Amino acid sequence: MQLKNYQQNTLDVLSQFFMDCRIMGAEAAYRKITAEPDIANRLGRLRDNYVVWDTIPHTPRICLKVPTGGGKTIIAAHALKIVSETWLSREFPVVLWFTPSDTIRKQTSEALKNPRHPYREVIDEQFGGKVRVFDLDEKFNIRPADIENSTCIIVSTIQAFRQSNTDKYNVYKHNENLEPHFAHISASEGMEKDENGMLKFSFANLLHFHRPIVIVDEAHNVISNLSQDVQGRINPSAIVELSATPQVKNNTLYSVRASELKEEEMIKLPIALTEHYGWETAVDEAITKRAELEIAASNEHDYIRPIVLFQAQDKNGEVNVEALKKYLIETANLSESEIAIATGEQKELDGIDVFARDCTIRYIITVEALKEGWDCSFAYILCSLANVRSNTAVEQLLGRVMRMPYAKSRKISALNKAYAYVLSRTFGEAASALVDKLKLKGFEEEEAKSVIEVQTALFENDVFEINKVKLDSPVITIPPTIVLDTKTSTIEFTKQTSDEDIQMVCDQVSDAEAYEIKSKFAGYKKREEESSPAKSGAFFSIPRMMAEIQGELEFADPEIIFESFDWDIAKFASAKLDAGEFNIESQGHGFVIDIDGNRLGYSAAGADQMEIPYIDIDNWQPVNLISWLDRTLKQTDIPQGQMVDWLRQAVEYLTEGRGLKLTELMIAKYVLAKKLEAKIADARLKAKATAY
């Protein structure tokens, strides 16, 4: 699965952070990266001092801000290999994957276990298929061999660990099923013991020993002191949090802009917002828009069946679920088979594949929110009959209508937008409320304002007289820029009419008339404004250079031209790494690696992290390291024979020429690979400069 540009950029920053962590520590690495102008600009108010948790002072903990619909799980899946190699120098880490609820936990576990699911495909590719996934309920099925020979991912909720009295909860209980794991584990600080002072064979103690990588979804919910205590018991090696709305204390490292999701065709924008004074017209217009979109969708190659999400009022409201369904069937003449109710009591979506071509559902009625994890990109229209300002469910429902079908822009522009029809007692109130809701979905305020496109209601106004309003209330003072027809009691806007003139009239009429005046005036102004070519959908085209390659014309992109250029890495990069570039010095029970003047510490325990099957530590040979480097640094534009020879020269120079120990090189192989990778990249740039 090819990453979107913003996803790759996020992972690049994450990788740089962990590389810097090895050199200068998490706090200094965080300051260094967040001080970069682009990143500082992205973070805004989230850029603050790095917060260290006392329970895990040496564990890097950062958060990636990704708006709803941006693919947080795919980013998390790719992050595992980055942390494992760059920070831990391990081939097979233990991973504890926290989700915000049991519903999401089960969905995430099922997705990660499914070998055909994109999430699992990513992780399999990173770890050579040596991956085991366990739901928390399956924790006692984990064998020592699983941890030794594969990347083990345990999916859980933090609630399962977030308990002050650890005796009552499963993960902290002594369990004989875990005894094989503890055959070679000794008690260390932070592990729990029983009343006799003996080490508990508990799942929490097992995690504490293996120091898992912790992934936290919806991380803004887990920054309490109790969460710090939980992490202290788990003893993580690194924590990567993901959230659309992180808090300052989350240590946000990078922020993806919502506009980047739009550019990558992940979400529908803008949101066309229409405010209504009466609920019937809001419903009618939502139905009409859905019908228009279905006609448009019939011209698309991909199957799309646009869906309306109706948010009814609660059971004591005028427009409750029953009243709304009755209106849809009896007044709007909709078929009952096209309507599904999804509330706490009525679960008519359960077991339904809304993407299926034989599914007839086009209207969904809910009250609070659809169940967690329900995502259908066919949802295009939100019609909220509740108070959009105070109702928290609107935020979740808004996210439901923003996802782009098949994550691909549609050829008909109407299908690239989301639509919202809402009740509002004061014109402009709903737009302001939706800005606040979008901010909760990860949008910055200016982004949120720019993507809301206020529309004029169709059925409450005569579309042919958008600049006229008939009044029942007597108006005493009329500004000169507004024309009053005394015979029909109708006012007419002109191009010179200002917002202040409109307000003067509105102060003299009823609330309903003031609403209509403001609504129509907003639509009139929008129609009168001159659109730029870009807003009208016009494109500016420029010619592109072509090059003839193997008898075919190709766009003259540097990468394409370079593909046909044969180059020899040995001509552009020496395989020798001198002491200034890469050095290893003994230090106590471990050693220090010096890379370009930056020093990384390693302990002797690093030898336990080696995962080279069938090779005894005492029998390591240079060929084993060369073979591993060849697999890790495989380059499509360098023939394998040429690559192996270059790597052989590099290893021979380090071991024979400089006398470095092979065991230390094997333990530090990831760092060595990163340095050689940088030399290859530099050589490629030099080769490209000679290719043109």
UniProtKB/TrEMBL annotation:
Protein name according to UniProt: Helicase/UvrB N-terminal domain-containing protein
Domain of life: Bacteria
Segments forming domain Helicase/UvrB N-terminal: 3-247
Record-level GO cellular component terms: cytosol
Listed Gene3D superfamilies: P-loop containing nucleotide triphosphate hydrolases
GO molecular function (one): ATP binding
Cross-referenced InterPro entries: Helicase/UvrB_N, Helicase_Restrict-Modif_Enz, P-loop_NTPase
Membrane spanning residue stretches: none
